[in-house]
Amino acid sequence: MSDLLDWARTSPVPMVLLTLVGYLLGCRLRDATGGHPLAQPVVVAVLVVAPVTALLDVDYRAYLDRVSLLSFWLGPATVALAVPLHRQAHRLRGFVMPMLGIVAVGAAVSVTSGVLLVRALGGSDVLQRTMAPKATTTPVSLALSESLGGIPALSAALTILVGILGAIAGPALLTLLRVRDRRARGLAIGSVSHGIGTARVLHEDEVEGAFAGLGMGLTALLTSLLMPALAWLLFTRL
Amino acid sequence: MLRGIAVLLTCQLVGEAIVAATGVTVPGPVIGMLLLFTWLQVRRVDITAGASGDPGLAGGTLRAADVLLRHMQLLFVPPAVGIVAYLGTLRADALPVSVALVGSWALGLAVVALLAALFDRARVEAAGPVGPAAGEGA
Questions:
Q1: Cα gap A41→A31, rounded to integer Å
Q2: Which residue from A minimizes the CA distance to B34?
Q3: Same domain? A40 vs A97
């Protein structure tokens, strides 16, 4: 019995299967609710995986190690975002340069407002630096947090949270703001909620998905470029 | 399909190599995405190549990409499980973290969406009276 439990803790099979089952349950729930915004497969999967790993006494590091088989595909999937963009490339005409400017402004607003809000509510200097890169995709967020002197793992967690927030509430907030243009909607979701927001809108509309992927990529690029200047401004001037 | 995966991995590999060589803080896969987009555009790959069962490199790439993207949320489950591990450390700073997270997210979203929509409207007006179909294709 304890041999079986040891196997369950150390083999990749139970953890990969658990993750897959959680995700599939999430997909069923999404489809059963007619695509309810709260029924994001990734959220349901976390709610399934977290208690089971706790019950089996598998800590997060060990879990991550067992499911590296799945995490590996995140890289190729990010590259694959070029495909919906290619399909929608005719919608890019005359939009490229303004889009670069818009996403740059968005990146600066995300970083500045994140830092200043934490500061205004009494958060520590380290917490402000940890919050700064949260709108970028996880690997960028980790790297920028490290170079800023934040807590990289916490930045990654905030990044994931803001992604889930975008998947759940992004489209509704855009509708509330009366933004109907699907390019603008996609670009905005990708700019603040990276891959997780992109994954949701890609499921619902290819134009929005394509521009979300682009928004995510450009935000990663431009935030990295702007961060040294923003950090200087926010942490030495203000 | 396998050839398509090889194309995706090649783009990622070149992207990672560029990152390693230049030291920019952009992930290799994001550079790889820009490389793949350039390749698809330069080769003028037929956007229906994936669906029409094109056995070549282009069709395979489109099919592989579609499979990966259809279940992209699955790939975010492993990093998302980590939030649970960090919620405890956030408790003391719950107020600044949650307000800053939601506030700055909403602000960023609104700024990008409204500027992009504004630009689009200005351009449509500058183009003069065109039908909705012409505006869509322009």
A1: 10
A2: A82
A3: no
Residue among A16, A223, A43, A49 nearest A140 (CA): A223
pLDDT in tens, A160-215: 999 999 999 999 999 999 999 999 999 999 999 999 999 999 988 999 999 999 99
**Based on the structure, what is the number of domains in chain A?**
2
Same domain (yes/no): A55, A146:
no
* Distance in Å, alpha carbon of A192 to nearest chain B alpha carbon: 6
A168 touching B, CB under 8 A?
A: no
CB contact, 8 Å: B58 with chain A? no
Same domain flag for A164 and A66:
no
SS3 A163: helix
Pair (A103, A201) in one structural domain: yes
Segment A28-40, tens digit of pLDDT: 999 999 989 999 9
Question: Which distant-in-sequence residues (6+ apart) come within 8 Å of A197 by Cβ?
Answer: A163, A166, A167, A170, A189, A190, A212, A216
Shortest CA distance from B84: residue in chain A? A50
For residues A62 and A89, state if they share a domain.
Answer: no
Whether pTM > 0.80 for this model: the answer is yes
In Å, how far is A149's CA from the nearest CA of chain B? 15
Whether residues A68 and A84 share a domain: the answer is no
**Residue span of the structural domain in which A140 resides:** 78-238
Q: Which residue of B has its CA nearest to A103?
A: B112
Contact A174 B109 (CB under 8 A): yes
